[in-house]
Specification:
Blueprint: H1 2-5, H2 9-42, H3 45-94, H4 97-100, H5 105-147, H6 149-167, H7 170-196, H8 198-203, H9 207-258, H10 264-302, H11 306-313, E1 323-333, E2 336-347, E3 351-356, H12 362-369, E4 377-382, E5 385-386, H13 392-396, E6 399-403, H14 413-418, H15 425-434, H16 438-443, H17 461-475, E7 479-483, H18 491-503, E8 507-511, E9 525-530, E10 533-538, H19 539-544
Parallel strand pairs: 3-8, 3-9, 6-7, 7-8
Antiparallel strand pairs: 1-2, 1-4, 4-5, 9-10
Helix pairs in contact: 2-3, 2-5, 2-10, 3-5, 5-6, 5-7, 5-10, 6-9, 6-10, 7-9, 7-10, 9-10, 15-17, 17-18
Length: about 550
């Protein structure tokens, strides 16, 4: 939080200054009010008119300074909130794939929307009030020390008592705010899942069941918000009660001073000052707890752990010149054994097809070989280097993925192929042609610079897959992972896509249930997963022998 506020030091200093302007305004108002009441004691029209004119001028000056103060504060708040949004988004984008997959994607959306809204609504409102009320307390207490030293010491003693009381509420305030954040995430995930499956729900007439479930999530969310609001309001009421008691004692003390002959103007001014001091403290102390809870939200959505940083950027650069060796590999997922003592190797440039029953561990094997999972027993070595010691950025620069569902940006075909990396247009065009996109591009007015609609809605399934292949071609990766890349395509398109994949220079590691006669046999090896073991077969032996599927 400190580095966020000091990111623009001069602007933050100006923000503090802007927050202090209302403190001066408040002192001027207190003084003019004391002078107005004191003018009654003086009893002359000339003095009263002079005081009224001074008061009008003070109010006009206060209004102008408030506008200036507000402009300075809003400008800083706007830029700082933008920095928070950037940091939160950057944390998600720079997380390792393994870390990213720990939570649902919808929880990240909740972080970017709900948590930032909580921070926006709470933090700066609390910060400005903290600075204003804290500044008022310090300035007023200083003035009171000059007016009446004993009286000021009494105010200070009251302040310490209030501080000890409010510390009791700190931990509960923070935990309740965190519960609101978690409930927001749960609600976002539940609603997203319901909407994704809404067609199935309607076709099977089970909307009411899921509506009931969603209503329970809503009730939980609103209950956590209610608990936080009631608790923080309770803090304010407790400190408010103590504040009223303090004002009563202050009033009794000042009435005693009045009987000693002190002027009404001084008494009123001291009362105004002490009243401002006490209520500033009453308001400012709960703000510490609420600011701390906001700071925890900020850290949650923006701070990367040191472990995650090291996964992404630290370690040895990936280099694949000979083979990847898997030795005595064992892996459990959610308490279930997936692999037990697996040993095989993958040679550079060869093509591997992973086969096995549903749930056997095909996708898990791909995730292990692409370093998404690293909590396995045994060894995965690339040219003798332990996979765990390789930094993730370097690995990702050398591998490509083709999935059944291809994600496309609302941008040009060229940018969807290059993924915003620097390539010459002729390189992109060559990759597109190699991926079989020539016919598509010839039909587009702007060719490779044609804009795609959201997630490529204006393309067929085969065209989307070919863009995915073009990405792999232009990246010229050492390894290409394919997970059911042709399962949603018709026979002709599937054959063409599979043929293109097998023609690449990359080492190909593919999962596929489809069998294209005359093409699928061109894989060099089949890795069949059976009962937690991986059996490696030459492709011709697998498809021509008794093991053919």
């Amino acid at each position: 939080m400190k580095e966020l506020l000091l990111q623009r030091k001069f602007r933050f200093a100006m923000y503090i200054f802007a927050c202090f302007i209302p403190v001066v305004d408040q002192l001027i108002v207190n003084l003019t009010l004391a002078l107005l009441i004191g003018s009654i004691e003086v009893g002359t029209m000339e003095n009263f008119v002079r005081v009224v004119l001074i008061s009008v001028g003070a109010i006009a000056l206060s209004s102008i300074s408030y506008i200036i103060s507000r402009y300075m504060r809003i400008s800083y708040m706007r830029d700082t909130l933008l920095a928070v949004r950037v940091k939160a988004f950057e944390k998600i984008m720079r997380s390792s794939y393994k870390t990213f997959n720990i939570k649902s994607k919808d929880s990240y959306i909740s972080n970017l929307i709900n948590d930032i809204n909580i921070f926006e609504n709470n933090f700066f409102l609390k910060l400005i009030n903290l600075i204003f009320n804290g500044g008022t307390f310090i300035v007023v207490l200083t003035i009171l020390f000059f007016l009446d030293f004993k009286f000021a010491l009494g105010i200070l003693a009251i302040s310490l008592i209030l501080l000890m009381v409010i510390r009791v509420f700190e931990r509960k305030t923070v935990s309740l705010q965190e519960e609101v954040s978690v409930s927001n995430e749960d609600f976002s995930i539940d609603i997203s899942n319901t909407f994704n499956g809404l067609e199935i729900l309607k076709l099977n007439n089970i909307e009411d069941k899921f509506l009931e479930k969603s209503l329970l999530k809503i009730k939980r969310l609103e209950r956590t918000k209610y608990n936080y609001t009631v608790f923080t309001e309770g803090q304010n009421r407790v400190t408010g009660l103590l504040g009223y008691l303090a004002v009563v004692f202050i009033l009794l003390y000042l009435l005693n001073l009045l009987s000693t002959g002190m002027s009404l103007t001084t008494i009123v001014f001291m009362f105004q000052m002490s009243n401002s001091c006490v209520w500033s403290l009453v308001r400012v102390l709960p703000l510490f707890n609420e600011l701390k809870s906001s700071a925890n939200i900020y850290n949650k959505i923006t701070k990367m752990t040191e472990e995650n940083k090291s996964e992404v950027t630290q370690g040895i650069d990936f280099s694949f010149n000979s083979k990847i060796e898997i030795k005595d590999l064992s892996f459990n997922y959610d308490g279930k054994e997936v692999f037990n003592g697996v040993t095989f190797d993958i040679e550079r440039g060869k093509k591997y097809l992973i086969k096995g029953a549903s749930g056997a561990g095909k996708s898990t094997l791909v995730k292990l070989l692409s370093k998404i999972y690293d909590d396995y027993q045994g060894d995965i070595l690339v040219d003798g280097v332990d996979y765990r010691s390789i930094n993730e950025d370097s690995l990702n620069d050398n591998v490509s993925f083709i999935y059944q569902d291809v994600f496309l940006f609302e941008d040009t075909i060229a940018n969807n192929i290059s993924l915003y990396k620097t390539y010459e247009e002729k390189q992109i065009q060559a990759a597109a042609n190699s991926a079989g996109l020539s016919d598509l591009l010839s039909k587009k007015t702007k060719g490779i610079n044609e804009m795609l609609l959201e997630n490529g809605k204006n393309l067929s399934g085969g065209e989307r897959q070919r863009i995915s292949i073009a990405r792999a071609i232009i990246k010229d990766s050492s390894i290409l992972f394919v997970d059911e890349g042709t399962s949603s395509l018709n026979e002709e398109l599937g054959r063409n896509v599979e043929k293109t994949i097998l023609s690449l220079d990359s080492t190909v590691i593919a999962i596929s249930h489809r069998y294209y006669k005359g093409i699928t046999e061109k894989y060099d090896y089949v890795l069949e997963i059976v009962n937690g073991k991986v059996i490696k077969y030459p492709s011709k032996e697998y498809f021509q022998g008794e093991l053919a599927i």
